[in-house]
Specification:
There is one protein chain. With about 375 residues, this protein is an alpha/beta fold. It has two domains: about 190 residues, Glycogen Phosphorylase B (Rossmann fold, 3-Layer(aba) Sandwich); about 160 residues, Glycogen Phosphorylase B (Rossmann fold). Helix content is about 50%, strand content about 15%. It has 16 helices and 13 strands. Strands 3-2-1-4-5-6-7 form a seven-stranded parallel beta sheet, sandwiched between helices. Helix 1 crosses helix 16 and helix 9 packs parallel to helix 14. The longest helix has 19 residues. The two termini are about 15 Å apart. The model has no long low-confidence stretch (mean pLDDT about 90). Its EC number is 5.1.3.14. InterPro entries: UDP_GlcNAc_Epimerase_2_dom, WecB-like. This is UDP-N-acetylglucosamine 2-epimerase (non-hydrolyzing). It holds the Pfam family Epimerase_2.
């Protein structure tokens, strides 16, 4: 059986990595890897960290690329890969443009598609944009839906899908545990240099914020909230790896530069990010991945978005939706900093995104189903 993994961004690479390692252990499966490199440098860092070598690299990333550029170039590039490899099954992950186009290309070649992290929905087609539509369209094409939670499965069933929906948790937890094991076994000396100016004897708040739907006044509100938290709590250290998007950098640098207990860094590679996450007290974020990773380490999350497709964390109590309202962000952060029982409740809530066995579950399910189909 030949399986082709298609991905193109750092988040996809992180969530595909443990799955690829699991599949490569199985001698009955011929595992191939194609990256579109919709992202380049950040993607390469993850591939190196997890020791993954692609068989195909479309190298699509270009300056000022648009969704039109990525979609057209990826679709045409994948045509040649699929013609050469003729896989039995294509794996795509999540909700990126690469995910949707990978599914579409496989569909055009009448190749089966397995969708990892299927069934997430915000029910607002412009938030997150374009991810909400990408995952819905991928679901239309997929033959296997590997849903991270029961709620995601329910979303798919509500949309009329009946067959091959499996609740398996999220591979992001597998990747997190695998990554921390790698760091434990091969200590990275750059950590001490990279974070040497941060006092880890204090409580550390990790901040990530870059969603395009927040650009403008909402993002200014968000950064104003971080400033107020820093000024009101000199006993905490705030670390903000700043996204490369100029819409993010200009506001962050203008509002938060020069504050003693705010540390603005360049975007962190995956190894440094999970190391920092493991050291952190809590997280302020609009990132989907960190909403899933932090609960596995018992870190409360305040989600700085108006809507999130990862509602399981909200319902489980590992995360709280605070939007981009300055006052709400500040109030909820202060509550976690000052109320030990509230912090304990969030940090000890059961992680709804899996226990680190998702990759093995996916492999076992696929082998069982395909064996039944092929007799």
């Amino acid at each position: 059986m030949k399986v082709l993994f298609i991905f193109g961004t750092r988040p996809e690479a992180i969530k595909m990595a443990p799955l690829i390692h699991e599949f490569k252990k199985h001698t009955a499966i011929n595992t191939k890897i194609c990256i579109t490199a919709q992202h380049r440098e950040m993607l390469d860092q993850v591939l190196e960290f997890f020791n993954i070598t692609p068989d195909y690299d479309l190298n699509l990333m270009s300056p000022n690329q648009t969704l039109f550029d990525i979609t057209a170039k990826a679709l045409k590039g994948l045509e040649g890969v699929l013609d050469t490899e003729k896989p039995d099954l294509v794996f795509v992950q999540g909700d990126t443009t690469t995910c949707f186009v990978g599914a579409l290309a496989a569909f055009y070649k009448k190749i089966k598609v397995a969708h990892i992290e299927a069934g997430l929905r915000s029910f607002n087609k412009y938030s997150p944009f374009p991810e909400e539509i990408n995952r819905g369209l991928t679901g239309k094409i997929a033959d296997y839906h590997f849903a991270p939670t029961a709620k995601a499965k329910n979303n798919l069933e509500t949309e009329g899908y009946k067959d091959n929906i499996f609740v398996v948790g999220n591979t992001v937890t597998d990747a997190l545990f695998l990554g921390l094991d790698i760091l434990k076994n091969t200590p990275s000396p750059q950590h001490s240099a990279l974070f040497s100016h941060i006092n880890f004897d204090k409580r550390v708040i990790l901040v990530t914020g870059h969603r395009r739907e927040s650009f403008g006044k909402p993002f200014q509100n968000l950064t104003n909230a971080i400033l107020e938290i820093a000024q009101g709590h000199p006993d905490v250290e705030i670390v903000y790896p700043v996204h490369l998007n100029p819409n993010v950098r200009s506001v962050v640098n203008q509002t938060l530069s020069g504050v003693k207990n705010i540390h603005l860094t360049e975007p962190l590679n995956y190894a440094d990010l999970i190391w920092l996450l493991n050291q952190s007290y809590m997280v302020l974020t609009d990132s989907g991945g960190i909403q899933e990773e932090a609960p596995a380490l018992g870190k409360p999350v305040l989600v700085m978005r108006d809507v999130t497709e990862r509602v399981e964390g909200i319902e489980a109590g590992t995360a709280k939706l605070v939007g981009t309202n300055r006052e709400v962000i500040v109030t909820e952060t202060q509550k976690l900093l000052s109320d030990a029982s509230h912090y304990q409740t969030m940090s000890q809530a059961v992680n709804p995104y899996g226990d680190g066995t998702t990759s093995k579950q996916v492999l076992d399910i696929l082998l069982t189903v395909e064996e039944n189909i092929n007799g």
